[in-house]
Amino acid sequence: MITDRSQRWRDRRNKFVPASTVIDPSEYAVDVIDCGKMARPFVIEQHYSGSFPASRLSVGLFRNGAAGRSRLVGVATFSVPMNNAAIIKHTGLTSYNAGVELGRLVLLDEVAGNGETWFLSRAFRHLRQEKQGIISVLSYADPMRRVGSSGVILGGHCGQIYSVFGAAYRGRSRPKTETLTPDGQVFCERALSKIRNREQGEGYAIDELIRRGAERPAGEDGRAWIASLIDRGFFRKRRHPGNHVYVFPLTKAAKIADRPLAHLPYPVLDRSRVSDDVTALPLLLAA
Predict the structure, then answer these.
(1) Phi and psi dihedrals of 113, rounded to 5?
(2) CA-CA distances (angstroms) from residue 280 to 6, 64, 272, 284?
(3) Among 173, 156, 163, which Cα is nearest to 48's?
(4) pTM of this prediction?
């Protein structure tokens, strides 16, 4: 596979830098960072989702500056997966506690093209040092291009950087139907359910919809408010064929557990596609 661009982030918009550019190790440092005080604000500010997962460990990429000062220019967050069964299914491990998801990998556009592999290899070392019971990492690549009123928010990717890193490719996760807001971002059904049923977290979900352009509720309850937004066409449904699934076995035991599982050919990016799934055929149809 030819990988000539690397995806980066800045103010929730994806950007690209030439993959041929090389990071200068003397300019950077990698260390464990506080999830709430450092990782979460950085990820929310820069990543298109504007959200932060339930983290088990976060590692920061720092760029050295004048007078010994450094700036945070990247974050790798290892998080609890949405479904623990995915760890067992895709890693071959017998306990989901032995695996973790790479929930966020966010690098600013000033980081050179090989920044992901350079940073991620060091982040994995910190993960093993801090969480010795974790021996395998699961990661997903979302191939769906997302377009909002202000233009392309997410170009869609097939996980090329993971293949360069030598991760095992498992195929796709299950297809699903997404609910999109006018800004092109996905709004999860669980958050809608919290609003409809007045569950804990309702206020945060309402505030998020307002931030995305919804009119503030005019006295109606949550269920009626969501119904009115649907009637006005605020939400849009889209079928998602499934994310690409990758696994990084970090120890000998993890590699042994990984051997019996499928090792499929890496998917290829089709840059001619301007919408929806950017995976090149025939893998577009593979499940």
Answers:
(1) -60, -35
(2) 18, 39, 9, 6
(3) 156
(4) 0.84
Structure tokens at 37: 């005080």
Token pair belonging to 18: 């030439």
β-strand partners of 85: none
> Helices (H) and strands (E) in the chain — how many of each?
8, 14
The residues, any chain, with a CB within 8 Å of residue 235's CB and separated by 6 or more, are 179, 180, 181, 187, 229
Side-chain-side CA neighbours of residue 238 (13 Å): 21
Give tens-digit pLDDT for 220-253.
889 999 999 999 999 999 899 999 999 999 999 9
What is the length of the chain? 287
Helices (H), ranges, the chain: 40-46, 85-91, 115-130, 160-164, 189-197, 202-211, 222-231, 252-258
CA–CA distance, 253 with 28 (Å, rounded to integer): 31
